[in-house]
Each structure stands twice: as structure tokens, then as C-alpha cells.
From TrEMBL:
Residues 5-162 form the NAD-dependent epimerase/dehydratase domain. GO terms for molecular function: oxidoreductase activity. Keywords: NAD, Oxidoreductase. Pfam families: Epimerase. Belongs to the NAD(P)-dependent epimerase/dehydratase family. Transmembrane segments: none annotated. It comes from the Bacteria. This is NAD-dependent epimerase/dehydratase domain-containing protein. SUPFAM superfamilies: NAD(P)-binding Rossmann-fold domains. The keyword Cytoplasm does not apply.
Amino acid sequence: MKKLVLTGAAGRLGSYLREPLSQMCDRLVSTDWTEDIGKLYPSETYVKADLGDLEAMEAVLDGADMVVHFGAIGDEAAWDKILHSNIIGAYNVWEAAARKGLRRVVYASSIHAVGMYPKTQRIDTEVPHRPDTYYGLAKCFAEDLGSLYWDKKGIESVHLRILSAAQVNNPRALGSWLSYDDLIHLVQQAITTPITGFCVIYGVSNNDRVTVDNHKAAFLGYRPKDNAEQCAEEVLAAADPADPHDPGQMCQGGPFASVEIGFSGTASMNIVQDKKEI
């Protein structure tokens, strides 16, 4: 590819994607709304841009083959904040992609689009949406937007319903963990698969306790290698007894399923901010 765009490049997941994506194209344009992201990789440039600004998105996507869209508020938040970055931002990315003739959008969706399903029900990629928050609702919107733009404008999209791409330090993560290596593999497969149309795939590693089913997305060639079971003994020994009446423990969305709408779902998750440094 000549040009690839990565939104959300300043984020934790973006920090792990920048180098491998820069090796897949002649030019990687990383973008976020911070002033800069520090040292750049050899084929990488950085552009500060607001997802809520359609003209800015058109400028960033001009001449690109594909966009890997990881930019958004990565937590539950007040409606107006989710609306600007996660909903209007998604529309602007797809509309700019259509106007600039991009072939495909690779989108960081989330388990929170279906977060209210119980973990005792193994769900596939075709279950109806069941969001757990405004954040999850925005992911539902973007998935439906991708379907619409495929049907009406012929733009392919791969929607990566990421479960939990963070260190394994709680019982839920034993089934939901997505390692950084598997994340990179997942995104690479979403980019290089010859034909995708519109599709959804769960972003999760090869965990023994996984609660979702990717068999309908097998054509993407995503074959995760890592397994959170290596952490099970230590994590379970340190955990409080499970409460079967707590939606945060019973539902796919974890703490997002139990918080009040508009309030942080990550506040109680003890996520380690281990961004990759160049």
C-alpha cells in the first residue's frame, strides 16, 4: 500500500500498532488530537486532527488506501462527549473514506456493543446488538454505519470487537484477554485479507475460557496464539468470591454492564497503562 492512516495513534493500543503498520505501507499517517506523539518511525508522519471535523478527516485520508480507525473516547462518558468523538467521529471517518475513495475501514469496535449478554451464553458475531453503555451504543452505531456504507457505497469494513487488550489482573480477563501480539496479528489480517465486505470479528486471544465464537469470521485468517490461562492460578487466588448477582461479573461487558450510564466503566478495572515507547 502507498498510504495507510491510523487514528487514535496516541492511545495505548495505537502505540503498539504504529510500528507494524508503518512496515506495511510506503507512508503511515498517524493522527490523534494531541499535539504530537513523540519520535516517529521511518515511514511515519503525524497529523493532529479532530475526529469531529469532517474536513480534517478528508484531508488526513486523502490518497490513502485504508484507514485503521482506533480513535475515540475509550471509556463510558457523558452523552455529548461520546456523540462528538465516537458517533460523529465515526460518521466523519466513513464519509471521508467514501469521498476519498478508500477501499476499507478497519474499525476498533468493542465487546460493549453486545456487553449485556451473559458470559454463560457463548455468542457469535451475528447476535443482535445489546450494548451496555453509551460507549457500547456508539460501537453499535459504527458497526451499522459500516454495514450501510458497504451496501450503499461499496466500502469494505472489518469491525474488531475487542474484549480486553490489557494485562491479565482480574478473573474476567482469563476469558477476555487480547495480547498485543494477537492484536497486531488481528489488524494485519483485517488489512491483508483480499476480500472482506462487511464483517465482524471478536478481538480476543486463544484463551481456554473464551466466551465468544469467531467461527463465522474464520475467512480472515486470524489465528491467535496467546492464552491467559497461564495467569489463572495467581489471578483466582487473589480475587474475591464471585457474585452471580453482579452484572459486572455475569455479563460480557464486565464492569461496563454494572455502572450507571454516563459514568466510567474503566475506573474499577485497574488497567495498566503500559504504552509502547520507541
